[in-house]
Amino acid sequence: MVDVLAKKGAAFIDSSTSSHQPFMLEVATFAPHAPYTPAPRYATADQGVAYPKTPAYDAAPTNPPSWLAGRPPLTAQQQQQMRASYDKRLEADRGVDDLLGHLQDELTARGVAGETDVVFSSDNGYHMGEYRLLPGKQTAFDSDINVPLVVAGPGVPAGRVETSLVSNIDLAPTFETLGGAPVGSNVDGVSLADLWHGHTPASWQQAVLIEHHGPNDAKGDPDAQNQQHADPPSYEAVRTATALYVRYASGEEEYYDTTHDPNELTNIAAQGVPPSLPRALDALQNCHSASACQAAARITWAPPVIAPS
Q1: Phi then psi for 235, rounded to 5 degrees?
Q2: What pLDDT does residue 302 have?
Q3: Strand 149-152 to strand 208-212: parallel, antiparallel, or no bridges (unpaired)?
Q4: Read out DSSP for 14-56?
Q5: If you ran DSSP here, which 8-state letter would residue 196 be given?
Q6: CB contact at 8 A, 44 and 91
Q7: Segment 64-122, tens digit of pLDDT
Q8: Which letter does DSSP use for residue 287 in this model?
Q9: Phi-psi category of 250—alpha, beta or left, where left has phi over 0 and alpha has psi -120 to 50?
Q10: pLDDT tens for residues 19-44?
Q11: Mean pLDDT in the chain?
């Protein structure tokens, strides 16, 4: 399927450049979703690659929310199944890499590579064994919310890593700005064009909003998960450069000082949550324009220095 998309994408580039008009192409692959079917040329190509186990893998967090508490260690069979799935995901992604190369080659052949922005990202992260959870994507942990955003194009500095906080709601106004279209005042996100071109604004968002409505177990829903995979109740959360704060509909809270606890293993909400985090969460939940949401995202706070026990 990825190879078919690559051919269709190249054909679109060919026809669009022939018209000498600006164009935008989005290619969304099914890979590497289950059942993780790689292109035949890559079958078994990545068996034996080291599994990326973080300290959160098969670990019981301290002071977890009730939905996560009391989970037994992963069984040998569960770990073996995730190991096999990981291999297949890598093999499926090799076809995605080929697709990117094929489209880049087509842009070069048509003489527009130097004036075309190419953006690679994903819709969600994925945990596979972290916090004793089977594969899933509905938590507020970094494993689930942190996605790649790789950009190449005119005016984009090669090899530059930008650490400013951004989120997927920023992509629409970015593409509108790059295309010369007006950005509506009711758009919550903000253009990333300046960041892409190496210019970090003096005042930038310091927090991003994360939202989840669950449990998500409706029959037939492609995102349905059971408790083993993580099926958390509804929550709202805010992520900053140094903290994760989660507030559930039940009133339960999580607070991780990610400077001292980057793997988000020790919930220290009971020791006190910096007031600026709930305030920022309330403001981000209720803002309704780019200016209001940017004001809500620019918070000033000094988290207490509490080393995880």
Answers
A1: -150, 160
A2: 46
A3: unpaired
A4: HHHHHTT----------TTSTT----GGGTTTTTTPPP---TT
A5: H
A6: yes
A7: 999 999 999 999 999 999 999 999 999 999 999 999 999 999 999 999 999 999 999 99
A8: -
A9: alpha
A10: 998 999 999 999 999 889 999 999 98
A11: 91
Question: Which CATH number does 2-297 carry?
Answer: 3.40.720.10
Question: Residues 148, 245, 236, CA angle at the centre, nearest 5°?
Answer: 80
pLDDT over 70 for what percent of the chain?
Answer: 95
Please state, as a whole number, how many other Cβ atoms lie within 10 Å of the Cβ of residue 24: 10
The pLDDT score that the predictor gives to residue 239 is: 96
What band does 10 get if pLDDT is binned at 50, 70 and 90?
very high
Question: Residue 104, by phi and psi: left (phi above 0), alpha (psi -120 to 50) or beta?
Answer: alpha
Q: Tokens 């078994």 label which residue?
A: 44
- Spatial separation of the C-alpha atoms in residues 247 and 75, rounded to whole Å: 31
Give domain limits for the chain: 2-297
- Is residue 122 left, alpha or beta, with left meaning phi > 0 and alpha meaning psi from -120 to 50? beta
Helices and strands in the chain: count of H runs, count of E runs: 7, 6
Q: How would you label 145-164 residue by residue, b for 16+ Cβ within 10 Å and e otherwise?
A: beeebebeeeeeeeeeeeee
Residue with tokens 């087509």: 106
* Gap between the Cα atoms of 276 and 200, Å rounded: 24
pLDDT band at 188 (very low <50, low <70, confident <90, very high): confident
